[in-house]
């Protein structure tokens, strides 16, 4: 690998970017800049783009009935199956915010795409992270603050009963009982859970809690060295209990143990917005932002591989994979039949991809 030290990637004109061959774009689109006021150095390890892989899925369009009260999808941020055989989806009510809106942002679907229940009205500003745990509980984060709401993490039962609230409504902070733009959450088998905290501003950390919501520890700070973070956007866990953190502004996945010890970093899955790991350790990584100056040469889409060894085997290319103005799927989930669900923020849709020759 080639190590290049920068403060920030430089933007390039679209035509210039598209005309430069991938190899040279990766090697020369980042330069050393000295004296960047107020910024630490960003460490980038150039990796050949992983774009040319088979896609064993076909897209199902349209899929899923719109929830009650919606004429079209707003920004969709999460989609994960539960152990009850249903699919849980989270959206941002109207366009890209739930502030002052009457819509319920969390929707429970059956696998045919029919809505069964919804909840969360009046609780969120900016629904972001979403997770369904082993017991079927539904977790959600609110990554902005406004009018006495936001910067919180919620735990619900599978029928929408509020079971736990963490963070102080509308208050951004970096203490054991506050968050500043919490982005995602994952729950371990023993009930401990981990929150990624920081969406490009505020914190850059992972926070660990016990099953009952007691603070245990946190780790991470702004930077690009191993163990440092720059917008930890998503988190998932493999069968060994290792934590996979989507360190989005650093274009990498960082792997930690549950005590915050750095294990490895992977860049072969692109610029990670969402990560989902199945029980057999297949890893699905949604890259919603590549191709622009932040990760040139990489196409947007969902890269699929092994959480055991880091191999990348398949690529579901986004329908606008090289459009800088568009972002692809962010939230991601996979059901027991192997169907892949993508939650798309900017294009406002819920995607479903089924295995060719199988799935439903």
TrEMBL record:
Gene3D superfamilies associated with the record: TolB, C-terminal domain
Keyword flag Cell membrane: no
Keywords: Glycoprotein, Repeat, Signal
InterPro entries per UniProt: 6-blade_b-propeller_TolB-like, NHL_repeat
UniProt xrefs under PANTHER family: PEPTIDYL-GLYCINE ALPHA-AMIDATING MONOOXYGENASE (PTHR10680)
Protein name listed in UniProt: SMP-30/Gluconolactonase/LRE-like region domain-containing protein
UniProt source species: marine metagenome
């Amino acid at each position: 690998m080639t190590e290049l030290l920068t403060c920030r990637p430089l933007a390039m004109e679209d035509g210039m970017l598209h005309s430069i061959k991938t190899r040279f774009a990766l090697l020369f689109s980042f330069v050393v800049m000295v004296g960047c006021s107020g910024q630490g150095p960003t460490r980038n390890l150039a990796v050949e783009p992983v774009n040319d892989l088979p896609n064993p899925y076909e897209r199902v369009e349209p899929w899923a009935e719109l929830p009650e009260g919606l004429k079209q999808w707003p920004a969709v941020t999460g989609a994960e199956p539960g152990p009850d055989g249903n699919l849980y989806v989270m959206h941002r009510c109207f366009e890209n915010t739930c502030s002052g809106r009457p819509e319920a942002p969390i929707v429970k679907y059956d696998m045919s795409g029919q809505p069964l229940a919804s909840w969360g009205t009046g609780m969120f500003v900016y629904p972001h992270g979403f997770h369904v745990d082993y017991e079927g509980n539904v977790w959600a984060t609110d990554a902005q603050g406004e009018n006495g709401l936001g910067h919180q993490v919620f735990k619900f039962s599978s029928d929408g009963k509020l079971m736990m609230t963490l963070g102080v409504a509308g208050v951004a902070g970096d203490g054991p009982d506050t968050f500043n733009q919490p982005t995602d959450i994952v729950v371990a088998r023993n009930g401990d859970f981990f929150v990624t905290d920081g969406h490009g501003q505020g914190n850059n950390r992972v926070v660990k809690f016990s099953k009952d919501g007691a603070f245990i520890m946190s780790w991470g700070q702004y930077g690009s060295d191993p163990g440092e973070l720059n917008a930890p956007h998503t988190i998932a866990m493999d069968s060994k209990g290792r934590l996979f953190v989507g360190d989005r502004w650093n274009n990498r996945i960082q792997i930690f143990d549950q005590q915050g010890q750095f294990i490895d970093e992977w860049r072969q899955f692109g610029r990670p917005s969402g990560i989902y790991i199945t029980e057999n350790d297949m890893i699905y990584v949604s890259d919603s932002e590549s191709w622009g100056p932040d990760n040139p040469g990489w196409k947007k889409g969902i890269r699929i591989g092994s959480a055991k060894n880091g191999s990348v085997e398949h690529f579901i290319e986004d329908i606008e994979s090289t459009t800088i103005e568009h972002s692809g799927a962010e939230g991601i989930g996979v059901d027991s039949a192997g169907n892949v669900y993508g939650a798309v923020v900017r294009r406002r849709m819920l995607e479903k991809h089924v295995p060719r020759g199988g799935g439903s």
